[in-house]
Amino acid sequence: MEAVTWIVDFGSQYTQLITRRSRELGYKALILTPEEVQKKMAGPKESRPRALILSGGPKSVPEDSTDFSFLFEDEGLPILGICYGMQVMGQFFGGEVERGRSGEYGKARLRFLSRPIEHIPQEFTAWMSHGDHLKEAPEGFETFLESENGLIAGIRSRHRPLLGLQFHPEVEHTEKGAEILSYFYREVAKAPSSEWAAEQMLEEARGHFSCVRETRAQVLCAFSGGVDSLAVASLAHETIGEKCHCFFVDHGLLRPQDHLHIQELQEKTPLNIHILRCRDIFLERLIGIHDPEEKRKIIGKTFIEVFERQVEEYRKREGVSFDYLLQGTLYPDVIESMSPHATGGKSSTIKSHHNVGGLPEKMGLKLLEPFRFFFKDEVRQMGLALGLEKKWVFRHPFPGPGIGIRIVGEVSPSRIEKVQASDQILFEELMKKNLYERCWQAFTVLLPLKTVGVKGDERAYEEVICLRLVNSVDGMTASWTDFAASFLARVSTRITNEVPGITRVVYDITSKPPGTIEWE
């Protein structure tokens, strides 16, 4: 069998994280739908996988009549079932899966009932996200982990290389999650590992430019200046040289630091960066719009129109016709945006991203997304390997819709100014206290409500700014950053004193999940 693991995608929001963690451990993994797995299983035995990992998913095993017997026909095939995947395994082998009344969500304490896995304590914290649960383990299986609620959290077969986990070892919030996955690969699957480093990732990404390298094709890069677009543009310049043209859209929803950053990149990098100033058209289309999804879609559609117009203007002015659009799309963007039918899995759409979903056919451009199946931390590794400055590589993520989705409710010039000013204060204080790199993302959000306050011995009835600071590795999960109260107080004091129309500052202490990192 090939030294590759097939990850069976039952629709979990974390399916790609299984791939990410596997790669960190040095194991090659490929995501397939159950239908694809069934078809491939019917093929030659030598083309089958080293192991299977069954992902979590939103469906209920007791209510799902799908026949998954094809997953378990090969008695020698190592299988790890995660969450829904464990329940599928448990029910197939005769265990009882019970419809949940309350479920377990977020962090939970687990304890080993039998010998613990090496290097993992007797009790540890894991990330749960399930309603149904395995009430009774199948005959021939040992229950070796139990949650603090007394529910089965881990099973393993006494006769076959099968392991089931009710929790998510792939999620950053699971203590020793990497060691648990490593245990499956090393002890259950007996799989050989290999290094997955920046050079291997870059080589894979470079392959996307083969369609451009030997032709006269020209590439239009959707450039934001963040690490994703900067790294992909730098890789393109290294690979195809002056064929790559970067276009930065100033949609009027930027922060002061963004303008300075783009200016620095123009001066210090060999990239050919054009700035498109389109503030008026974006703001005009956002008037009266309150719904966050509608805002995202308007901004995304306008982005496309701007690029479409620029293609034509540049062609007329410079005589350059573009063949491809290059984007720094990452997998978290894709998995949150795409419908179940688009991905082949069953995951639900969380929110749309302006850079996901392709282009109008009339543009006549083909899409290049070399980082589509990479995560933020991997792109940062590649950015450093490309020789980019550390401060650029570890710059906090900034969404394409910008401040447009950091204003809850309608977008207007005055509300934009409040977020710009408050965000700049937060940025300055983080830099002053050397805290910028101690959080993954930090920003301010303007809330659609007013509260009573006192300014200058007079009553004030003004708006509220929320501070959002989180820590994450890949953007798929995140925890709020526990900075000192003195730092938060300093930021709050400056905002309420220096930003007109703001009387109150609050701090968001919600993790992802259940919240998302951005508010909209």
Summarize the helices and strands and which ones pair or pack.
Elements: E1 5-8, H1 15-25, E2 29-32, H2 34-41, E3 51-54, E4 79-82, H3 84-92, E5 96-98, E6 104-112, E7 123-130, E8 133-136, E9 141-147, E10 152-157, E11 162-165, H4 177-188, H5 198-206, H6 210-213, E12 219-223, H7 227-240, E13 244-250, H8 256-268, E14 273-277, H9 279-286, H10 292-318, E15 324-326, H11 331-337, H12 340-343, E16 366-368, H13 376-385, H14 390-393, H15 413-432, E17 441-455, E18 458-471, E19 479-480, H16 485-498, E20 502-507
Helix pairs in contact: 5-13, 7-13, 9-10, 15-16
Characterize this entry briefly.
The chain is α/β, with parallel strands linked by helices. It has helices at 15-25, 34-41, 84-92, 177-188, 198-206, 210-213, 227-240, 256-268, 279-286, 292-318, 331-337, 340-343, 376-385, 390-393, 413-432, 485-498, and strands at residues 5-8, 29-32, 51-54, 79-82, 96-98, 104-112, 123-130, 133-136, 141-147, 152-157, 162-165, 219-223, 244-250, 273-277, 324-326, 366-368, 441-455, 458-471, 479-480, 502-507.
3D structure, described in words:
By secondary structure, this protein is α/β, with parallel strands linked by helices. 33% of the residues lie in helices and 22% in strands. The protein contains 16 helices and 20 strands. It has helices at 15-25, 34-41, 84-92, 177-188, 198-206, 210-213, 227-240, 256-268, 279-286, 292-318, 331-337, 340-343, 376-385, 390-393, 413-432, 485-498; strands spanning 5-8, 29-32, 51-54, 79-82, 96-98, 104-112, 123-130, 133-136, 141-147, 152-157, 162-165, 219-223, 244-250, 273-277, 324-326, 366-368, 441-455, 458-471, 479-480, 502-507. A 9-stranded mixed beta sheet has the order 2-1-3-4-11-10-9-6-7, with helices on both faces. A 5-stranded parallel beta sheet has the order 14-13-12-15-16, with helices on both faces. Strands 17, 18, 19 and 20 form a 4-stranded mixed beta sheet that branches. Strand 10 and strand 11 (162-165) form a beta hairpin. Helix 5 (198-206) crosses helix 13 (376-385), helix 7 packs across helix 13 and helix 15 (413-432) packs antiparallel against helix 16 (485-498). The protein starts with a strand and ends in a 13-residue tail after the last strand. The relative contact order is 0.10. The model is unreliable at 338-360 (pLDDT under 50).
